Amino acid sequence: MELGLAALWLVLFLSLGLAALPLASWLLPSGARAGLAIPAALATLAVVGHLVGQVAFGWPAAVAGLAVLVVGSILTAGRTDIDWRAYGEVGVVFTLAFALVIAIRAVDPAAAPLPVAIGEKFLDFGLLRTLDRAGSLPPEDMWFAGEPVKYYYGGHMLTALLTTLSGTATRFAYNLALAGFYATLVSAAYGVAGALVDPYDVSRRLAAGFGAFFVGLAGNLETAARVLVWLLPDALATVVVDGVGLESSVLEWSPGEFYYFEATRVVPVDASDPETAMAATEFPFFAWLNGDLHAHMMAQPFLLLVVGLLLAYWRLPAEQWQKRLGVLIGVVPPVAGLLGFVSLWSFPTVGGLVVLTVALAPTDPATVLPERYADRVGPREHWALEELRRVGFGLAAAAVVLALGVLWTLPFWTGVMLDGPSRSATLWDVRTPVGSLLLVHGAFLAVFAVALARRVGGTLGRPLAAVWIAGGLVLGATILLGFPALGLAGPLVVGGWWLLQETDDVGFATMLVVAGAGILLVVELATVEGERFNTIFKPYAQVWLLWAVAAGALLARLVAGWPASRLAVDRSRLATGASALAAVLVVTSGLYAPLALVNHADGENQGPAVVAEGPTLDATAYLEYQYPRDAPAIRWIDSREGQPTITTAAPGGYVWSPDEGRGSSAPASLTGVPTVLGWYHEAQYRGEQPYQQRLEDVEDIYTSENASYQRELLETYNVEYVYVGPAERARYGQITVAEVSGVTVAKQFDDVTIYAVD
Hints:
about 750 residues; mainly alpha; 33 helices; four-stranded mixed β-sheet; two-stranded antiparallel sheet; 8 strands
């Protein structure tokens, strides 16, 4: 196993964070600085690298990013206090998280398609390999030769820069980057959750630990429900299965049959259709265990960086209006632009967070304006007018932040996304069942229900029982009306918003609760046309992240007996009850990780490369064992310089079954060398007509009886190599391209012939 490379990447990430620590300390609130230093470093490297990469990618982009980072820290080092010890603490958290994923990937390293692996690894590895070959940005699409990538590739671009800095081969960098991004996320959650309780008499480390656990190790309650059904008598087990909407087969389940994928498929895409597919409701531990180096995963540390920056705005006093304004429109926008570039689904979330932060912050939003303007738009006496004024400020601020974010990453928007097929948002009239919602979000909802019920009861001077009864009636009514998400998330929005206006001790964590509940309601009401699966999947991942750090902070406060001063209840009783709640939630949400690790380490689930060689971080080591007929040819293509165009069997997908003619565009995906047409989702990126045209052209290249037309197509697509392997022979039968003049054998293998085109 490549322990030396793992140590090198660990040192690289920690060194980048160390270099960014002065800058992070100047920009971010105390408590969050150390945890967000590495995300701040990576964000700087990515934003600068993207701009410079338009001219020259690779070393010029990486060096420019490092230079800006170092200069920024030098300029800010003397303006702030730097807590080196706190960074050491975060470094320990980072190292433990990094080592966990290294251990997981060592026994399951394959960046492979179905049936060897599950997920979108061919897309992720292919993008990374393509960027390693690219001389400038945007990179050429490996599955649509001659055209730029039409996908948000920012996280892969950043990984390619880290690969350059470390001098690591892509086949190892894939798994090392997975470990690095996971550790960055967990340590960022540790820092943010701890920072959320800074103003209160609460253990920072307890809150930080809860936050890191909920983000990095916790699973949803589907696994706990399965275990409960297994333990209960049949009659009660049936009640549970029916109540939460589990499949009846769960009644026969036992822990020995655990499969790590099942917990992420509990929300139906269309609940009105019993045969509908299930949307992905992933949580971070599953995502990294599954091992896709995917966009929504790499975006998460940067979303927490935005949260940290907005927390700084929230806590800065009115007299520091210049710094508040600087953070809001000077620092948040480039990170927002980066988020759009890394995962487009996260971009509007930044706008929503800005609206809520500006509207609900303790300091009046008008104070960021010069005094002569602030007086004209100051507070209003009527509460409704005041709320409208604050929300108006929030909307204006969000518009500015998002517009500036687009400017910071303008080449991405104009060169990659602008001319792709557009999709509109449409209303969605099918509601998610209450059981599914509770399985996915139940652990967090329990924390928020207790925290807000206690605080609302104390503020109103009402018994807790009255608050619980009122909440139960609301939920019951919405279930009867067929809109249970409104009964679960609506009270969080209304109660959280009201508390933020009425009291100053619920804090920024409550704003994150409101934000997550708002996303949940939007997903229930609207969908992106043709993208219901992703409309649930990608926003739910963000809800999990926002709620996980908020739950960490609020649970720590509850364990400390908050809010005893507002309730006629002994503080120790509140603390005891909250401690019991914390124990239950840690156990129930923590069941998934150990079962999944055992399931994943089982010899039957290990990739063929691991079975044959033992632990490795080589993402392509499976190739010789699983696909021995294609392996030498693909290795040969990978050794080519630059990005020569090849053609392979089309269409590709995520399944590689050569004997069935399903080549999955493997030569392109594993080498970054572009093929004329690959993955069938290119139709989604570029439109059906261009995709179908290339599909027909590829078939003609291989099988046409008109040699002149074949030569014309080869020239049109600038093809340099024609790949003829098991998938091509199975798909096309009689292949005629070898008879075209100017087409000669470049390399002959036992089962693959690669032709060169003159």
